[in-house]
Amino acid sequence: MRQQHALLKAIVEETSDVVFVKDLDGRYILVHGTTDINGVPINAFLGHTDEELVPQFAPMRRASDLRVIASGKAETIEQEYVKDGTRYTFMVTKAPYRAPDGSILGVLGVAREVTGIQKMVAVGRLAGGLAHNFNNLLTAILSFASLAEESLGRDHPARADLGEIYRAAEEAAVLTRQMLAFSRQQVMTPCPVDLNDLLRREERLLKGLVGERVTTTVVLDPDLAIVEVDPGQFVQVLINLVVNAGHAMENGGQLWIETANARVTPADADRVPGLPPGCYVRVAVRDTGVGMDDATRRRVFEPFFTTKPEGQGTGLGLSSVYGIVKQSHGGVYAESALGAGSEFAVYLPAIEAAARSQLPLAPIVTPEGHETILFVEDNPAVRHVVARLLAESGYHVLVAASGSEALDLAHGPIDLVISDLVMPGMGGRMLVNRLRTGHPRARALFISGVEHDTSIVPSGTAFLPKPFGADALLRAVRAVLDGTPGHPSAGPVGPPGA
User: Which of 81, 159, 198, 318 has its CA 20 to 30 A from that of 66?
Assistant: First the structure.
């Protein structure tokens, strides 16, 4: 029994849900989680019953326990409670907790807060589907605009129009990335980063976002720990937080950006809910703006929620901050009061004994080449424009619309395979695995507008998210072929399956 209990404890520590075990009398003998249950801290339940701690919910819970014990079958119930004027919903699934001989010892349960989850899941799925289609369209627009601009003389009047098309497409790409960020579907390329160095590098940019009417002060902890984060994505977090602060100080004010080491303990559950105890790096953005009431503060990270007039805000800036930070295994929390400004605090896990990181190297400057590239893409517009870009840059290009067609073309030497990651029939990963036997030295670069599962990108291969323009594509190709480390667009490089 002791071994069973230890094994269960080890398993539940891997989940962020609330997991509990009750004995036959309804007493909690194991509780694990990082959030409250009906407003009561998790650690208060151990050794007690529902009747002792939450008597208002005890009859319903005990009846559910007894049904599970009597029937030997699992059941799911939904529970709601109100705390500080906010209604929370939990979905609780219970099953019999059995001894090795099969006898029932109590109830094993899993509780998950589902407040607003249905809306987030639906919007997240919508974002993924829209991103896939938009990113293909934007890739074609950006690339064709680049080709058209290069074909015109320097003084041709249409060059300015093409430049506007290019800039509009880039702004649309930003919106797509924000949609992917709040649903945590964007590609992350984390590496050890000193956030002090990052802030020093971006300080002028951040100060410029709020203008001269706002006095900006940057305070850096000289002994700041290292974190593992995608530096480009975290710059986007800082930009969104600073821009948000600037909007709250239209008549001027003061802005502070601060870094500090922080330790989160179980006692901090109310202040930083959902954040596991441990060592963190805290980055705070404080302003003296108009502030928010509690109702606004509680909704501030929701997608499409904005207090700006219609047509002046997308409601995606802070929700993308939330998504990026959560995908980096951290947390972001807002404190504010009307007329008293706001503070947004980002917590990122500190890396123990990490070497100080050099930020990604500058992109290479020689995109032309002569190598043989097998390019595989199921979208006709993207297939056409990328093949043309590669050919006009000196590469010998084999073009395929599917994985099976690519295998039929792969007879001679191949230096690089560029493949859409997600395609009907044979996806990019399967294709590269099939090609590896006959072309062991070929490198791989995956492209995709569906960024929801980077785990299917094989180790040692590079990834370039759609949408991209001609310059980003050619630089990524050259970086992969040359084995350039730390390229910010293409990610890790190396032969397939390395």
Answer: 81
